[in-house]
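Work Package 3 (structural annotation) set out to generate three-dimensional models for the target panel prioritized at the project kickoff. During this period the team completed the workflow that converts sequence records into discrete structure tokens, so that structures can be stored uniformly alongside our sequence database. As a representative example, we reproduce one entry of 285 residues exactly as it appears in the project archive.
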Amino acid sequence: MKNRAVTILAIDDIQDNIVVLKVLVSEAFPSAVYYSANSGRKGIDLCKLHKPDVVLLDIAMPGMDGYEVCKIIKADEELKHIPVVMVTSTTVTGRNRILAMDAGADAFLAKPVDESELTAQIRAMLRIKEAEDLKISEKERLEILVQERTTELEQELADRRKAEDALQHLVFKLEKSRNSELKLLTDLRIEVAERKRAEEQVINHLHDQQLISEVARTLVSIKTKNDVYEYIGARIHEVTDNAYVIVVKTNIDNQTISVSHAFGLQKLIEKIKRTIGFDLLNLKV
């Protein structure tokens, strides 16, 4: 109100009353902007167009009276905060007040209008209008703040969802990489085991080849069969664990079998001796 001119709208079907109100308003509020309408319908249209600070509304008008005009103004979301002063040429009775209150009027003035009373009523209505404007401004400010905060929260939620999606994608990639590493490690272990088995087979094969070569070289240097039997029996005893090797000779002519060589029997005899406590070879019967 302090930063702009006050706007007053007078609605009265009698032109003289409109002129009188304009003069009184101009004297009390020199910088005020004054609008007027000579019918209820035109007054409503001007009210919607200019949204004045105060409406001075005559009650007794043909067609649409002041009560109906006031109801329409107060039912409009954009106009209902504008104070309405009901102006009547008759004495304000209890019934008039009830009808005016039901219509949404904020104050009353009786004709002929007193300048000081008009001024006081307009000032009071301006304070009401200023308070309503502050409420609307605060409400709008709060709505803006709520909307801004809602937008921020929606953006935060969108960013969080985006971060969660990125994290899930990263976890998926890490899990996939981990599975690949585990598979590679398993394959490497299998390959190492197979290589180890192959190396063992090669070593065993080399050992066998070395043994065969050694046996072959020795056999070549041996001249008698008895030496061959002895050598073979000794080699067999070396490569077998906890085994007893006996080399026998068969004589087909006289159908006899004799032991030519024995390997490991001495260990057997010693084991039996330790077990039973005496030497079987020296046993007397």
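The first helix runs from residue 15 to 28.
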